[in-house]
Amino acid sequence: MRSPKLMLALDLPTAEEAEAMLRQTKHAIDGVKVGLRLFVAEGPGFVRRIAARLPVFLDLKFHDIPNTVAEAVDSAGRLGVAIVNVHAAGGRRMMQAAAQAARRHPKLRVVAVTVLTSEALAPSEAQRIVVERAVQAQQAGLHGVVCSAQEAAAVRRSCGDQFLIITPGIRRRSDARQDQARIATPEDAARAGADWIVVGRPILQAEDPANAAAEIRRELTSS
Ligand code: C5P
């Protein structure tokens, strides 16, 4: 069984707060996700700085016409991020254009968002749509997907060992679910074959973020 890496979702309002959180948690995490909140507030300069220190997943969920998405993927590659994502719902041509743009940046991985983990679909329905979109993403030349750990094992079976699987919506048994619906524990994600788990509020809002991150990491490696 593979042991997934831990990615901290830096969903914080300012670079100062993000840097402070990184100082506290850096020993327990393998990478960070910069999403809409921080990117809109602090922009590409901040992302470039962080990407020089550790793997960054730029989570801007591109969803536009193929040419616009391809240009945005190219810009992400120039920032030096490790991973960027597009919405699978944007369609085959859009994903193909994104994959093509990524070829200019050999280290860049482009993954497709399948179905948001906040969508409360019935498990069989979620699995059907997620697997269908994952296969489409793979056929379009993308490197992987973002999906809930509840569907990760099915994606792994359909798309194989090399396909990158990133799972947000991770909660320990003691954590609040908040707006997430299709949640799973770190241990479930490891069993399902995820490559990365993405964790935000269970670490960001913990009394001791370093300790919460270390605990989650222990759950990943002991499962
Ligand atoms: O705080 P929490 O652990 O719920 O954070 C999960 C992060 O993963 C958020 O930044 C959210 O935007 C992101 N995400 C998600 N579901 C997806 C894709 C990204 O929750 N399908």
At a glance:
With 223 residues, the chain is an alpha/beta fold.
Characterise this structure.
It is a single chain. This protein has 223 residues and is an alpha/beta fold. 47% of the residues lie in helices and 17% in strands. The chain contains nine helices and eight strands. The protein has helices at 15-25, 36-51, 66-79, 92-102, 123-139, 149-159, 186-192, 201-204, 209-222; strands at residues 5-9, 31-34, 56-62, 83-87, 109-113, 144-146, 164-167, 196-199. An eight-stranded parallel β-barrel has the order 1-2-3-4-5-6-7-8, surrounded by six helices. The longest helix is centred in the middle third of the chain and has 17 residues, at 123-139. It is globular, with a radius of gyration of 16 Å. The mean pLDDT is 96. Cytidine-5'-monophosphate binds next to strand 8 and helix 8. The site of cytidine-5'-monophosphate (C5P) has 16 residues, from strand 8 and helix 8.
Task: Give descriptors for this structure.
223 residues, alpha/beta, 9 helices, eight-stranded parallel barrel, binds cytidine-5'-monophosphate
H/I helix tally:
9
Q: Count every beta strand, where a strand is a DSSP E run of 2 or more residues.
A: 8
- Placed side by side, the strands forming the largest sheet appear as 1-2-3-4-5-6-7-8
- Which value, in Å, is the CA radius of gyration? 16 Å
Reconstruct the topology from this structure.
Layout: E1 5-9, H1 15-25, E2 31-34, H2 36-51, E3 56-62, H3 66-79, E4 83-87, H4 92-102, E5 109-113, H5 123-139, E6 144-146, H6 149-159, E7 164-167, H7 186-192, E8 196-199, H8 201-204, H9 209-222
Helix pairs in contact: 3-4, 5-6, 6-7, 7-9
